[in-house]
Write the structure tokens for this entry.
Amino acid sequence: MPNFEFDAIVCGAGPAGTTTALFLGKAGKRVLLLDKEKFPRDKICADNKTWKCLDIVKELGLWNEFEKLPKKEIHGVLIGSPSGHTIYTPLLEKDIQEKDTWFNVRREAFDNFLMEACKKEKNITIREQCIVLKPLFKEKQMMGVQFRNEQGKTEEQFGKVIVGADGSQSVIANSVGLSSKIKGRYAVNARAYFENVQGPMEVVLKQRESTTSRHPALGMCELYYLKGICPGYFWIFPVDQNWCNVGVGMRLEDIERKNIQLENKLKEVIESKKFKERFKNAKQVTEVKQWGLSVLGKQRKCSGSGFVLVGDAGTFAMTFSGEGVGPSMRTGKIAAQTIVRALDRNDFSEQSLNEYDQQLWKILEPEIRGFQWLEFLILHEKIFDWVVKKARTNKDLIKISSRMQKDYRVAQEFIKPKTILKLLFG
Ligand SMILES: Cc1cc2nc3c(=O)[nH]c(=O)nc-3n(C[C@H](O)[C@H](O)[C@H](O)COP(=O)(O)OP(=O)(O)OC[C@H]3O[C@@H](n4cnc5c(N)ncnc54)[C@H](O)[C@@H]3O)c2cc1C
């Protein structure tokens, strides 16, 4: 047996890895947190933080620090269907009163804020600019990692549990045959920041009477499932400083089949009749960057002998929206709880760590069941158009969408006979 200096080695310091490390550190466990980058660093994302994320920020006792970050309040989401119908789903006033709004915070700032919290935790040893090369095994149990260290030298460290938190190209997941690049669920995305994008809010204003939001025209996330892009989408998410995070994401197979250059696609959409007015006075302030991501579909194995996978390494971003920050942090929290119990038992076998899969799946299964309906919609453009056209003026259906923003299990209500009748005849 190697001499374990650490209870856990967390590979990757994105939201999933830092959350795992923070919960473990606070439980008094010794953690080594490795990341290939030096923080602060950018991460290609649309920057939205829902209550899934914000609840965990509060639970970690970091809300006061979070409040200091540059950010934009978000009060609702606008969805555009392929033929151009739009529906605005406001966050419910009572939810805002209980939890505050959602926020868009640039990942460079948000991930650094979590990293700074880790730096203050005495049980966490942080090593930046360390690239994990491969996991190390003893009798089929993962119990260490080999990495290229800050000086460019190959180094090995050992831990009782290895946490794969190294994102959608995870070395840890790939090494055990659990690649997070899943056919049909893997999208490539291109993103840039723009200054001074104009925002027509007429759709929102028209719906104003049927919503309960205080400021329906304020800070919303816009997702357009455009023809030729759907089930991917074009997005405009406002962030701080009058900047917007703008991007487009498409399934890899659609990009390959249509031989699309994603950066050109982004330009094409911005210059299209539908959006050109909004970008007339806008200035692109960063280069276009690309990143891949798989979304969660069905239950997958995310633990094994000596290891667990959290965040994008385990493919936990939501289908339909691609939201992954909150879901990643949630997996980090559950992984940490499992690891604490495994340490108490001194048992890091596949069976012991399978508790993580079980705990997680209990929560995810009802959410996924609801989201299957939304996934069905984006895969069937004509039905999607029809549903958005019907639902956009139906108070009850908008209310279900709004309730879903707090609890994803509510999505199951869309497929109840009562709701379908409302859609057909409401
Ligand atoms: C274009 C786009 C838009 C998105 N928009 C949103 C959004 O608005 N809201 C939302 O909630 N989610 C969004 N997501 C999803 C979200 O970005 C991810 O789900 C989230 O970042 C997952 O966090 P993570 O910690 O698992 O992985 P990551 O954030 O990818 O972090 C992984 C970390 O591991 C490090 N790493 C990787 N490989 C190694 C290695 N070999 N050795 C050491 N370190 C390594 C990386 O440097 C990184 O710091 C979006 C994703 C994309 C691609």
In short: The pocket of flavin-adenine dinucleotide is lined by residues 11-17, 34-37, 43-48, 131-132, 165-167, 171, 189, 191, 247, 249, 291, 293, 311-313, 317, 322-326, 328 (CB under 6 Å). Residues 6-73+105-183+296-373 form a domain with the FAD/NAD(P)-binding domain fold (CATH 3.50.50.60). The chain has a mean pLDDT of 92. The longest strand covers residues 154-164.
